[in-house]
Specification:
Layout lengths: L5 H4 L3 E3 L14 E3 L5 H11 L2 E5 L5 H15 L3 H5 L8 E7 L4 E11 L12 H29 L9 H5 L6 E7 L6 H5 L2 E9 L5 E6 L5 E4 L5 E3 L7 E5 L1 H6 L9 E4 L6 E8 L6 E2 L17 E2 H9 L19
Helix pairs in contact: 2-5, 3-5
């Protein structure tokens, strides 16, 4: 990442939000997928938090390490070489600019298509990267589908594939992202004054489900219902799952799409890899009729994933993206 002046660095700072009393903060749900009570715990975590950590997930460390190795080689490359893989359109290499609406962060990233016919020709060794991504995404998608089917079982849905089939569809609009947050020693003075370096600004994920794996550097934070931000302890051998906006709608608000962000580290780099499981573009998203209890109203207007995706990516990260699709949103 190119060195920046102190004045330019200021735009990446936010003031620290009120701290959370560790005695009152409930632990992030930890779910062992091999245990018989995992279905119940998955649904409870989605209802209470919209975020949880899974262990005994069945994905080999070798699969993870191979992709992380390829990503490390890429982000360690000279800047000019990395820029040949960009700018993102929407896929490719990006640096500091997130999306097209003025959001910035102390981050470099690769956004990749995961469709079978996708290609990574912009990368220096596309065949090696493609192979590592394919193996990893296949494993992570299978885990995500298993989790979604367990949720459907616990919700007593007749079709246990009602969520997972959207990811397994050949036209599924799923994407894969690798984020790299370089160290920034110039910011230590600002940190001492109570500021945090924004790696990736606060947002929810618009898709159905997100599967995150990061190294052992901290930085991920989630927002609690009272607006407080809490740090998520890193764990390189586990996966973190986010409920996406689309799953919140499909469950008529029972599951919560959680707001999260990344605070960068002044001394250590951080790398994360995220699979965003999305439905086909023409898929209609609306609360499932089987989840609407007697006389319960649908909280959301029906929309296609194409419509919501366009709306989401034409707004800033922190915007309440679901607001314009709520039936009973308050007008101020």
């Amino acid at each position: 990442m190119v060195a920046l002046s102190q004045s330019t660095i200021q735009q990446f700072f936010l003031k620290t939000c009120k701290p959370v009393n560790p005695l009152t903060f409930p632990q992030i749900p930890l779910i062992d997928l091999s245990k018989p009570d995992s279905k119940h715990l998955l649904v409870k975590a989605c209802q209470d938090f919209g975020f949880f950590k899974v262990v005994n997930h069945g994905i080999s460390l070798d699969c993870i390490d191979k992709l992380e190795s390829q990503a490390t080689k890429f982000f360690s490359s000279p800047q000019l070489l990395k820029e040949k893989a960009g700018p993102p359109d929407p896929f490719g290499y990006g640096n500091k600019n997130i999306g097209r609406n003025g959001d910035v962060g102390w981050v470099e990233y690769l956004l990749l298509d995961v469709k079978p016919d996708s290609h990574y020709n912009k990368l220096q060794h596309p065949e090696n990267f493609h192979c590592a991504v394919d193996d990893y995404v296949t494993a992570v998608k299978n885990m995500a589908c298993k989790i979604l089917e367990m949720m459907a079982d616990e919700l007593n849905l007749e079709d246990r594939n009602v969520f997972s089939k959207l990811l397994m569809d050949e036209q599924s609009d799923s994407v894969f992202r690798v984020n790299y947050y370089p160290p920034c020693p110039e910011v230590q003075e600002n940190e001492a004054d109570g500021g945090n370096l924004i790696g990736f600004g606060e947002h929810t994920d618009p898709q159905i489900i997100s599967v995150l794996r990061s190294d052992n550097t901290s930085g991920l934070e989630i927002s609690l219902q009272d607006g407080s931000w809490v740090s998520v302890p890193p764990d390189s051998e586990s996966f973190f799952i986010n409920v996406g906006d689309s799953l919140q709608v499909l469950t008529n608000g029972r599951f919560k799409s959680i707001k999260h962000r990344v605070v960068a580290n002044s001394k250590k780099s951080r790398m994360s890899m995220i699979y965003f499981g999305g439905p086909p573009l023409n898929e209609k998203i609306a609360p499932l009729a089987s989840l609407l209890e007697r006389e319960e109203d649908s909280l959301y207007k029906e929309f296609t994933w194409f419509e919501y995706k366009n709306s989401a990516f034409n707004s800033t990260l922190s915007h309440n993206r679901l607001g314009s699709f709520e039936k009973f949103s308050s007008k101020i």
